## 1
Amino acid sequence: MSQAYPAALLLPSDAFDTNQHQVMGRRVAGRALAQGIASSLRPNEQLRVLAGHRGELPVLRDLLQPLLPVGAELWLGCGLGSEQLKQLGCLHLPDPGLAHWCQLRAGLPPSSFSITGVTHTLCSKAVVQGLEALVTAPLECWDALICTSTAAKEVAERAISRQLEVLERRFGQQLMQPAGPQLPIIPLAIDPESFQDSSQGLDRSRRRQLARQRLGINTDDYVVLFLGRLSFHSKAHPLPLYKALATLSQSAPVLLLECGHLFNAAIETAYNDLAAQFPTLRVKRLGGQTPATEDEKILALWAADVFCSPADNLQETFGLSLLEAMAAELPIIASDWNGYRDLVDHGVTGLLIPTSDQLKGQTLTDELERQYRIGLVDYDSMIYQRSQCVVVDHQALETALKHLHDQPEQRQKMGSAGQDRLQRQFSWTSVAQQYRRLWEELNDLRQAAAQASQKAWPTSDYGSLFGHYSTHIASTTSFRITTHNTSPEFLLKPMQKGIINRWCNHSSCHRLVQLLLDWRDRQDIISEETWHQAANALGIQPDHQRALLIALEKLGVIEGMKA
């Protein structure tokens, strides 16, 4: 019998499917996580993955099944019933919203299962509110918000600290730091082999030559690659890079290679207009309003001499494209900005360019934040305005680009050092082990707590809030059906079919109707035990059986026999 992997993954298509949804860092990271975990399974180990709905199951199977080691298994399902959740041990979520998702444990002992999530973009109103809610959410030390970088952990810690201050002032009492969740740092990762082109076995020099032939790039060009979202409002303003390369191109053959996605015609026009302001600057673009293909991305990585990402946006939290550059043995020039600091070893694998920001040292809420929080300014406008107050040091960027142009041997050393660092710290061989250790430790903590008697956290559940509305408690324990009752076939009519199908699928619903008709013909009194046995045989979840029985009485299909 297979042994369960220490965590189950919740993966709705929005968290991983870049074919059905826009290519975004969190979706690329979600897909990579599932693939990385699947490929790291031990023989005779089973990975459980929960989809958003049944239509997503074939996509997940095609994505993960080919990566399983010999002897490992994949279990795919959907639904988040309490009985199913208690079997998972740990449920890993594709976002940082632990305060939201911990409601899955409402009414259950806290040790029923662990909950973990992961940080991506942290600057949205919803995410910040979610981080603040960690203070009061019913979370435990066997739950964890996995932070992908040191900068991300600091954001979470500061949000928690500020919310504690708010509550202390509100209630006039000093509060303790909550026991959970834990905030471990585990980086994102990639599979280095997936960024190799078809020229296997060739060194970087030969790959560079072949890629340039396919892309029509001169052998002698100093090619600087920007890879990622081409967005001046949500990624990186291109002006510092354009300006620095235009200056350098006055004395050397320089080419800026842009590879990525332009979201619309207006943004594409803006990029083209800016490039036209620098007559000496040559730009070659792969992708555009139609995103660059994976093949184009790999060619770009191998054709380049240097990778450059002068990110200046609050949306940027980690930087998967930097890992891709490391896989291709490229030296990196990047802004000294949040998660980038964890990825680039300054002077060894690349160079970090100083940044300055209006928010640095600002401790009071400003007008922009107030307007964004109450909805007078939208998210895109907020991050755009914030990015306009982030300065990437123009002179330092120009100096770094010229330095690596003049030092081809250092480029090679940095590229090799980056590839080595990727294998040690940011490949799935390393990162999957960190996830495994974390989930095993959380399960140990949870199982130790389960030995003690635990009560569910009190919640503002609807029974507590609204249970006084009715006269009596719905307490049907046995029932009967006669010809005077509403026909069971009414359950298949449009007025009821939608809600009944939420509790039992289409096939089960038809079988339920037939069973009720048989009971009506016999006019027996049906006990509660008989009902549950029949409902189990129909595949109706335990959580839904009582609600369905009460609904049958509501509709007059059955006559309840009160205890």
## 2
Amino acid sequence: MFSDIKLKYFIVSLMFLYSVNNLFAQIGYVPADDEIYLFLNRMQTLDIIEDYNSFEIPKTRKQIANYLFEIISRINELDKIDKLKLNDFVSEFEYDLFGSNKNSLSLFCKKNPKYILSDKEKYLYYFSDTNKTNIYINALLGFNSLNEYNSNENRNSFLYKFGGEIRGSLFNKIGFYAKVTNGSFGGNKNLITKFHSLKYNYKINNETGSKIGDNFFDETEAFFTLDYDYAKIKIGNDRNIIGYGAHKIFLSNNAPRMDYLALNLEYESLQFTFMHGKLLGLKFHKFDNSLKNYTEVFDKYFVYHRLQISPFKNFVFGLGEMLIYANRNMDFSYLNPFNFYKSAEHLNQDRDNSMMFLDFQNNSFPRLKLYATLLLDDLDFGKIGTGWYGNKTLWNVGIYSNLLYKYLPLDFELQYIRIEPYVFTHRIASNNFTSLNYSLGATLPPNSSNVIFNIYYRPYYRINMNLKFIYSKHAGNLYNANGNLIKNYGGNISDGHRLGDSEKIHFLEGIKETTRIISFFTDYEPKKNIILSLNANYTNKLLSTSQFNERLFINLALKLKF
């Protein structure tokens, strides 16, 4: 079975599967980029765990502990590599599963010359007591080497980050988390400012006119939560991921994180989620006699709620709304989690950008999961099929498969996204589906289609590999040499329909672009909390002028957590 987990843990987990698992779990959420979510997604497709909501991430440590208990009880159905992965996860979530820290090391509490190279969970400091009060503190280090090759020039940069994180809970009801990092870089700044979250990082993108501090950046995320099992309230700034598939169409890591208030209700087969968040809207550079040059950014708000129902085993249906509003303070109409926002928008004089969506997931077929989402940004049934610009819909369908699970540690995913013209745009520019002009969801613009084929391979329990093929078609707007909009085809999220624009626009009508992307990612964890990773991304874009743009981006990274 699995080598390092003590037999008594395994027996206890089976004996108290439904009674003990909620006694010890730390209150809080597991970050959205944690590997555990790929593992749970696979376990759901294998029908080993039930009622896993892959549409909304992150999950609480309590929820993940419950899933791990289910997996432990069916460990004989796992392949060799997943058994070893499960071993690592049980060590990582040991306190949440069993209320102990026997597989953990503290640098301050017990000096150990082999601390860094240990395969136990490592912390600068941790504490837990019988009152279910606990705290865990980690130091973080990260190094990245970035290289970009294209037809015009080759660019190289490196960056480093350092910081720490703290998480804890009080009395099995209150949880908190904070992560703070600082960093700097060397090499080409233009390359750095296009990398991941640094593309919208204020400090590194702020032009001060002085070279002092120009190479410095900082980032932070945090949350506070109350967990009453069936009801959870959260105030946070951590990353939320919403949507099915490898490319998330509602919330992804493309845009800056938002500060938000969230409510989650869960009982039996019903789940309800509400979120109200603050975005960053239009940005203006102004001049003042006392302040000289300064930047003004207007606030805008994101509202989301969704009801999920599982009427039958392996069937999940979701119904929800999203809404963007701006140019005023927080609106109490949208602070009500149970309000019908489309009607509330009408009462608010139709100033806002409301959307409705339906989603579906089914894994009744062995080792096969199907999912689909339909977004209705706006719809007039009488004008369906006429090309009317106001019929703005988005389709997202996909298949996730473990059909070769018994023979190879290999998973496949095929996803198709179709975004009609003007989807996520709005006639009032402030209300488009962006934050700092970055799309909240996938990077695919309106008037586009996307086919994504993913291959996930696990050659070793601490090595993950992902090979991705993306084929995209986009019909963009027509601009002059100065960047002014001449013809609007609904192909830019920043350009809503204007007076004088055509009332009829058909899908992929506009300035054609075709993009092919081959992406390879692998990470390796030689020792616990020491992760080496490689990401290579080749992009080939065929422009409307019949010219090719080619780009190869390589990111080598080292992350340490201790």
## 3
Amino acid sequence: MPKTLAEHLQILRPEQHMRVVGDASRLITAPFVETDYDVQVGGVFVARVGRSRDGHSMIAGALARGAAAVVGEKPIHLLSQVPLSVPYVHLANAQEATGWLAASYYDFPSHHLTTIGITGTDGKTTTTHLLHSVLQAAFAQKVGFISTIAADFGTKTADTGLHVTTPGAPQVQQFLAQMVDANLHYAILEMTSHGLAQGRLNGVELDVAILTNLTHEHLDYHGSFEAYRAAKALMFKMLDTSARKAGVPKISILNRDDPSYDFFAAIPADRVCGYGLSESADFRAEQIEFRPDATVFTVQDHPITLKLFGRFNVYNALAAIAAARCLGADWSAVQQGLAAVEGVSGRMERIYAGQAFTALVDFAHTPNALKNALETGRAMLPDGGRLIAVFGSAGLRDVEKRRLMAEAAVQVADFMILTAEDPRTESLDGILQTMAQGCIAQGGVEGETFLRIRDRGQAIYEACQRAQAGDIVMICGKGHEQSMAFGMIEYPWDDREALRAALQGAPLATLPTAHEGSG
């Protein structure tokens, strides 16, 4: 039986300062949406004042498509130009309310799951996939996940978007409901700072919170590192406010070697568990060996084999180990689950087309992730080999990281090509100029140790043309993503396809030409 709007609204918190105009007993038969073209007959339209568009301007369109009620942030007297013939709910923050409304609509599916959240600047997706594999081995395939790459419901998977790690609140709750319908017991969710700050994860009843690391990122949105950290902390605070589930403690899993450890460890939880390489870690990696075919190490005297490379992936594996062990997985399941992960899409992914050098695609798009990825590539180089890196930095995002990424890369790579990476409405030439200045500040010489090539397909082709036997070419920044934003348009793009095309002798040409797109 569908809930009434009044029943849905009961879960909204008092601080929302809710005022309802109209009959709130009307039946609601479709989910809550934030774009008028997504409205279904009988659904609720949530209007909020966004950064680029005011959702209240879409109310008329939502009503024309059959919306049965509207939730908004503006007093009704300011909407006199819209003939409201349905109930209107005025809230102080409609965006935060969306998560609770969606959870209520889908009958709070996370009440029926042991729910694990993973946040951090880097490593969320890899940690999600590693933990998913371990828990599947431990608990008979009863595990689902929502990651940057996909959502897994046990019997099927779904795409989760182009540039969004955390889907919208209705989609999150719908995915969780599908996991419940599939009789899954565990759900793993990547939780970004944006998703947390925007309330997309409100209504998720969390049991385990995992932090990978915290470095410079998203300061364009949050304004300061402290605000960014506070957004991440919202996930850990969910442990204290989430419903208790029989036999499931509230667990905080933290990187013992991260400078933010003490900050997050102070947030209440039934158990705080640290992982890392330091002696103070509860789960500590020792005897680490980076072999040509695998990474091996021990944790509490148990041997671990990981088919992923790099010290950062040791940390990702440790996070998965700590969470799985705290949830009751035995060591044999841990070992089996980690060894079963052959790779993660767009993460240090090898592309081979018969060439004499190694070609890799990686999602690294932050200064820390780029440095880690390139250091991993350098460790894989044979004697005499060179490391050639291709990367950019996104428009309308944290400006400071453009310089930081270039500075980090010039210290590790032998040669770099700076290129487009979602310039959006910013000047691509301006972005590349800032990056070039970062290279020069660390001793880079344009034309000798780095180039600027605006067209990403041409940049990847140039890198492959320069590569010789024994070299490693790394294409960083896009990973699994399937599009690139120029102006307001998402163009089809896949770094892996671009690399394959370059290896076969021609640049991929699905992006705007040099004189089009961003200026």
